[in-house]
Amino acid sequence: MLYRTLKFLEASYPWFNRTPHNVDSLLTLLDFFSVRSIPDRDIARACLIRGKRPLLLYNPYLHPDDLTVTLGHELGHILLGHYQYYDVLFSEKAYFSKSGIEKDAGIVGFLLWVPTWKVRQLEVQERLSAEELAWELHTCDTEWPL
Fold first, then answer.
1. Strands across the sheet with 88-90, in order?
2. Is 108 exposed, middle or buried (0-12, 13-18, 19+ CB in 10 A)?
3. Contacts of 51 (CB under 8 A, 6+ apart)
4. 49, 51, 62, 68: which has the fewest Cβ within 10 Å?
5. SS3 for 57?
6. Neighbours of 28 (CB within 10 A)
7. Judging by DSSP bridges, how do beta strands 55-58 and 46-49 pair with one another?
8. Which residues lie across from 57 on neighbouring strands?
9. pLDDT for 113-142, tens place per residue?
């Protein structure tokens, strides 16, 4: 099911899973989807609140890679339609959470940060399986050359 949804997102949005995004490009995309994004250093990661216009509170002091994945994760909730069913979506847990909606949004966020072609390139360069690479990226420090 998620695979078909990812393929639909790729067909619908030329920017999905093709280009590595950063904080600025994701804030622009969130604005495109009419999401008001407000920096809030009191939020651990991010919080998406349903209303007439979605509101995203996010911590601007996260490391840029962490913030990129966090914003991508929240955009994932929008793209996957989770936002329609929940009043508040928190990203206080890791974006690789095992719950269904968090895991799916985490995958979308990850693909916005590191598209599939880049994952394949890193697999070859580092000689890691996709699972090992995902674990390495999940636990990476700020020295990773992405």
1. 36-39, 55-58, 46-49, 88-90
2. buried
3. none
4. 51
5. strand
6. 12
7. antiparallel
8. 38, 47
9. 888 888 788 777 877 776 776 666 555 443
